[in-house]
Structure formats: structure tokens, C-alpha cells
Amino acid sequence: KIYKKSEKKMSLEIIKKIRESNSLELALDNALNKLRRAVKKRNDDLHLLNVVTVDDQNKPNTRNVVLRDFSIENLTIRFHTDKRSSKIKDIKNNKAICLIGYDKKAKLQIRIDADAYAIEDEKILMDIWKKMYPMSRECYRVSKSPGDKIESLDEIKFNEDDESNLIGFSNFTAIQCDIKSIEILYLNHKSNIRAKYNNINGILNGEWVIP
Q1: 3-state secondary structure (DSSP) of residue 188
Q2: What are the φ and ψ backbone dihedral angles of 34, each rounded to 5 degrees?
Q3: Out of 23, 31, 147, 163, which residue is the most buried by the measure of CB atoms under 10 Å away?
Q4: What torsion, rounded to 10 degrees, do the Cα atoms 202, 63, 82, 72 define?
Q5: Distance (Å, rounded) from C-alpha 41 to C-alpha 47?
Q6: Could you tell me if 64 and 73 are in contact, meaning their C-beta atoms sit under 8 angstroms apart?
Q7: How far apart are the first and last CA of the chain?
Q8: Dihedral of CA 24/30/36/39: which sign?
């Protein structure tokens, strides 16, 4: 409880500093640092993001994905998925996606527009696979494809792993998202703060926006 109170107080102080300094840089840096921290903190609100894709019927699809990597330097985000999933079909049809997350303690919403593609380099995928926890690899061993219709829950079968620890690897892929823009919204009782940053030649250029 003490930790939660102190973190809430820190968030209020940051919002106050952003307002007093009118600093787009401070508003952005705070949001980016929270994303970077969320990669390794499994209980962090931003560790789980919503991703929106568009299918071949021009209909939006929304799912939750785990934030696996975030690079401030390269302005990229990575999440993992099954090659057989509908996300892959959507991304191949339309690379434009949207990621959104909300940090309750910081009262901060982050929306990211990006171009996504499946990483195809086997060496990169293998390196990621070997670093994954066994429980994270398990879902890729399901025998049928995600989204397949079944008559009974008994039809959910998993291929047994072996000493190679590679069972399921053929179904695994990582999605890299090249960030095109980031929009942040700080919720505050005095007045909300909103800004949008566009990626121009690898640099995020920001502007204030009416909340």
C-alpha cells in the first residue's frame, strides 16, 4: 500500500511538472520509460497491450498481446504470436496496426500507430525461442490452429515436448512493429494533457492536442 501511494504521488508530481514546464519532451520521456519498464515487469499495466488489426473484409480485430520488447533507439515494439493465427493473415493483408495500453497508477494512456511485419529470420526467432520460459512456449504446441472450430474442449490437444525443446517452434513467430506515431494522454482532475508525436526520420516530433 505504501508503494502504491508513493507511485501515485510521483505520477501526480510528473503531471504537475509537465504542465508547469509545458514540456513535450518530459511528457514523452516519461511515457517511453514506462513502456521500457513494462517489458520485464509482468504485473505492469503496460505489459499487456491491445492490438488492433484490419482483416481482408476491412473489419477491425482487437486482441491482447504481451509487450516483449521495446526499443527507444529504433522506435520498435515486438510481440509474439502463432503463425497460424488470424493476426498473421490480417498483418499480411494490411501492415497498419494500432497498439494501445493504459497505466492505471500513472493515469496514462498510450496509443501507438505502427507498421507490423512477421520476422522471418530463423536465427533471430531461434534466439528469442531459446530465451522464452517453457510455459510461454507451450501454447505453440497446440495441435490445431488458433481459432479452429471444435465440438468439445477435449479436442484441445498439445504435442508433447522432447529433449530438443523445439516442438512448437515451427508455429512460432515474432511481430516487429515500426512505430509511426505515439499519442499520449495523461488524465488529471485539473485538466487532461494530450500530445501526439510523429516519427519523422527516426525522431519523434511532438505537438500538444486538445484532450
Answers
A1: coil
A2: -70, -35
A3: 31
A4: 20
A5: 7
A6: no
A7: 31
A8: negative
Q: What is the rounded CA–CA span in Å between residue 152 and residue 144?
A: 13
C-alpha separations of 27 from 60, 155, 191, 193, 208 in Å: 30, 49, 15, 9, 10
C-alpha cell at 3: 508503494
Is residue 175 within 8 A of residue 81, CB to CB? The reply is: yes
Tens of pLDDT along the chain (211 residues)? 444 556 777 788 899 999 999 999 999 999 999 999 999 999 999 999 999 999 999 999 999 999 999 999 999 999 999 999 999 999 999 999 999 999 999 999 999 999 999 999 999 999 999 999 999 999 999 999 999 999 999 999 999 999 899 999 999 999 999 999 999 999 988 889 999 999 999 999 999 999 9
Residue with the three cell numbers 496514462:
108
